[in-house]
Design brief:
Strand content: under 5%
Number of domains: 1
Number of strands: 0
Helix content: 55-70%
Structural class: mainly alpha
Length: 184
């Protein structure tokens, strides 16, 4: 039985576009560090292609980690977070919960950006919420609450802790999430 964090393919396609939008907003922070490394941009482009039905999930699953691996080449914490946001967006084809990871890493990149500071992610959170279509909201509500399902990225671990976890909790709270995934 697949994880509740996977979601069906229709929901993953819906979330992939939103996750790509979240990651693209901070991509410049990575590109300022490593302008010739296209892996995060390619990951965002692949997420958009998946959202549009131009590529299948199987092909995306094989390359989902490529964009996030670029984080090691970034010279700044903001650049690393931006690459990880792209990596999470490219992973949505595999598991819908990665959309929340993309949003959290994008907000973290904003918090860590030069001239920025803790709390700047609040504006990013507002943008993320405002940019959600009704289908995106519905798909995100079908995900289990952060930390309650061990079978994916929303289980206890990196995304459930620190600033990333706080951001995801705030997103889920704003969506009225708190119980089991909504029935279709």
């Amino acid at each position: 039985m697949p994880s509740a964090q996977t979601l069906d393919e229709e929901d993953r396609r819906i979330l992939a576009g939103w996750a790509a939008d979240c990651a693209e907003r901070v991509l410049h922070l990575f590109e300022a560090d490593v302008p010739d490394d296209r892996r995060p941009r390619d990951g965002i482009d692949r997420a958009r292609a998946f959202a549009a039905g131009e590529v299948d999930a199987a092909g995306q699953i094989r390359v989902r980690f490529v964009a996030g691996r670029a984080a090691g080449g970034a010279g700044s914490p903001a650049g690393r977070a931006a690459a990880r946001a792209a990596g999470q967006a490219s992973g949505v084809a595999h598991m819908g919960a990665h959309a929340l990871g993309a949003a959290a890493y994008a907000a973290r990149a904003v918090d860590l950006a030069p001239g920025g500071g803790e709390g700047d992610g609040d504006d990013e959170l507002a943008w993320q919420l405002d940019s959600m279509s009704d289908p995106v909201r519905a798909a995100l509500r079908r995900l289990p609450p952060l930390g309650q399902d061990r079978s994916g990225p929303l289980g206890p671990g990196l995304l459930a802790s620190g600033a990333l976890g706080a951001h995801i909790r705030r997103l889920q709270d704003a969506l009225g999430h708190g119980g089991p995934p909504a029935a279709r």
